[in-house]
Design brief:
The chain is of the alpha/beta class. The protein has a domain of 160 residues: Rossmann fold (3-Layer(aba) Sandwich), CATH 3.40.50. 37% of the residues lie in helices and 26% in strands. The protein is built from ten helices and ten strands. A six-stranded mixed β-sheet has the order 6-7-8-3-9-10, with helices on both faces. Strand 1 and strand 2 form a beta hairpin. Helix 3 packs parallel to helix 6. The two termini are 34 Å apart.
């Protein structure tokens, strides 16, 4: 469904992605793991059109998208829930969700808002609340919900558990798994490797802009380097 081929991305003279290639099949959750600075967020930003690759291609169902602006990428079916949430602080919860549907003109937007509320009942309780006053966990729910309002075929999730208490991390990732079961393909960047691999089908490990290891979630869980570096276990 999504193919990244030999992607090279620079920040000025800094070589951030050094020819990475990966694939995400329809219906999968694919985890992208790695330490800070490995290139995970850069990968998502490039897929979503926020960054332009110097070389390489990004294909969605065989069609090139790496030269499209971000709103066209969204229109093709890819939505991005960014690291750091980046909600509209002065808008209400409902207004933030409506912003997620900014490319749509159909009459089913209210129905989709209710679907988001079904996934995140806490947002329904706070639908008229100004988003900047929400807790960190509630803001993360809103970020994911806003992305879902674009009706994406592929959801890019960047660090959904960042800064959250363990019980909220588990709730967020259970909801991510539920979103996938409902038909949305997911590319998940997550520092909590154990939690990510518990719900993912496959995964890739990035190290300094390169794909170092890839395989099924089970293979990565059992890989000695992954266990030592990301799962806190001995080799």
């Amino acid at each position: 469904m999504l193919e990244v081929e030999n992607l090279q991305v620079f920040y000025g003279e800094i070589h951030a992605l050094k020819g990475i290639s990966l694939q995400v099949a329809r219906g999968e959750i694919v985890a992208l793991l790695g330490n800070n600075g490995a290139g995970k967020t850069t990968t998502l930003k490039t897929i979503s059109g926020l960054l332009r690759p110097r070389t390489g291609r990004i294909l969605l169902e065989g069609q090139s998208i790496h030269e499209l602006p971000p709103h066209e990428v969204v229109a093709r079916g890819i939505a991005h829930a960014p690291e750091g949430r980046k909600i509209f602080n002065r808008l209400t919860v409902t207004e933030n969700l409506e912003m997620g549907a900014y490319l749509r003109s159909d009459k089913t937007i209210p129905d989709d808002i209710e679907r988001v509320f079904a996934l995140f009942p806490r947002l329904k309780e706070r639908q008229a609340q100004v988003a900047g006053t929400l807790s960190g966990g509630e803001q993360q729910m809103l970020t994911i919900g806003r992305a879902l309002m674009a009706r994406p075929r592929i959801l890019l999730l960047d660090e959904p558990s960042m800064g959250l208490a363990p019980i909220l991390v588990e709730q967020i990732l259970q909801t991510v798994e539920n979103i996938n079961r409902l038909g949305t393909t997911i590319l998940l960047v997550e520092q909590n490797a154990a939690m990510a691999l518990s719900i993912a089908h496959r995964g890739y490990v990035l190290e300094t802009g390169n794909i170092a290891i890839h395989g099924s979630a089970l293979e990565l869980q059992e890989h000695p380097d992954v266990r030592r570096a990301y799962l806190g276990e001995g080799a």
